[in-house]
Amino acid sequence: MMLALTSVWAAHESTSLAANPIRRVVTLLQNMQKKVEEEGAKENKLFEKFMCFCKNGLGDLKDTVDAAEAKVPNVTSALAGAEAMQEQLEKDIGELKGGAEDAKATIAKAKGIRTKEAASFAKDSSDKKNKHCSLEKGRCCHQRRHGGKILADVN
Predict the structure, then answer these.
(1) Is 154 helix (H, G, I), strand (E, B) or coil?
(2) pLDDT in tens, 95-151
(3) Domain range list for the chain
């Protein structure tokens, strides 16, 4: 019985809503009001999150700036040290280049001396070989003439 009354009442409501345009406009406005309130609540939540972010973000930003400002003297002194080291290294490179030029000149001079000594040695060696060959020939001739007797060494 209750089911029948409920369905009758629902049918009456739907026909009355369909028949009454003012009621449709009021219902439409009520639905729009609910949607606007829901959107307002969502926007309010987003606004609160944004404000929290702004407050926390500003603090984080200040901390980051303070930390960066604290590092400035250290970085400045490190930069000055690096520049001084670069200057010293460039000076050392210049000195080493000069030393290398001196070493090259010394090597060239030593090669010249070595070349002269090698030529002198080659000449002396050639002369000594010629003298040795002459002595050998003379010894062979002496042995042939004197029947294989070798001269005694003379001091």
Answers:
(1) coil
(2) 888 888 888 889 999 999 999 998 888 888 888 888 788 888 877 877 777 776 665
(3) 42-146
Chain center to CA of 126: 64
| pTM, entire model | 0.36
Q: How many Å separate Cα 28 from the centre of its chain?
A: 67
Measure the CA–CA gap between 42 and 29, rounded to whole angstroms. Answer: 20
Burial class (CB in 10 A: 0-12, 13-18, 19+), 49: exposed
Token pair belonging to 100: 């290398």
Angle between helices 2-19 and 21-146 in degrees, nearest 10: 90
Residue partners of 24: CB distance under 8 A and separation at least 6:
17, 18
